[in-house]
Fold this protein.
Amino acid sequence: MVGIGLRKDFAEELIDDNALKPDFIEVAPENWMGIGGYWKKKLHKALERFPLFTHGLSLSIGSPDALDFDFLRKIKSFLQETGAALYSEHLSYSKCDNAHLYDLLPIPFTEDAVNHVSERIKTVQDVLERKLVIEIVSYYTPLAPEMSEADFINAIVANADCELLLDVNNVYVNSFNHHYNAKEFIDKMPLDKVRYIHMAGHTKVSDDLIIDTHGEAIIDPVYELFGYTIKKLGKEVPVLLERDFNIPEMEELQTEMDHLRSIIKSSLKETAHATAH
């Protein structure tokens, strides 16, 4: 399954004109909860055709602030009303002292943070009555780490008993910026907990820095890392093509989705062949 984020920039082409043929769509619940009128009708029309996956922006799971239970109840209602297949969020924080920071900031790789985040994920899962699928995020400055990023992620997934959103582009971005081997990082992930994959483009701003932007086409090294990841998983999981701005022609987005499908097919075929021999 390969899906695409429902963006208002091309919602009509997707919903009304069949210009794209995804297997599912993804929305950020915050952008659609309580919406009425024209866009509510568009969303309902989309839901008649496509399964829905959700990817939140405001949970702020790593925040020192208390969880917002009113917000969680609204999320739960939205997930139930739309029949959403899953709810994913970022392993980061975006609120502090009740102020929204409008960015996804990294959580320190520490034992205290593991315990804090794990307990919050457990609470979220209890309220929503479903697993939270947590995303590995891109970051640009590690904050006083006591452990590796891989150990940090593994500890949270194990302690919270949640699932993992493996953003392959984020892994590539982090490996480039922080000088580690992306494939070795993938090898260290709890691959049995991977429920969802994101793929996207990024922007190279200098010889030693790339930024996760979701505004460019996916590059070949990220496709190659994606193929490696699928082979390691040995199974198909839902894959999302993220494109948030600088939207190209619909044919280009469809070509990217088709390329992802072909990589999934060929990678799983290779894995099956290797297993048989």
Remarks:
- The chain has nine helices and twelve strands.
- The longest strand covers residues 99-105.
- The chain has a mean pLDDT of 89.
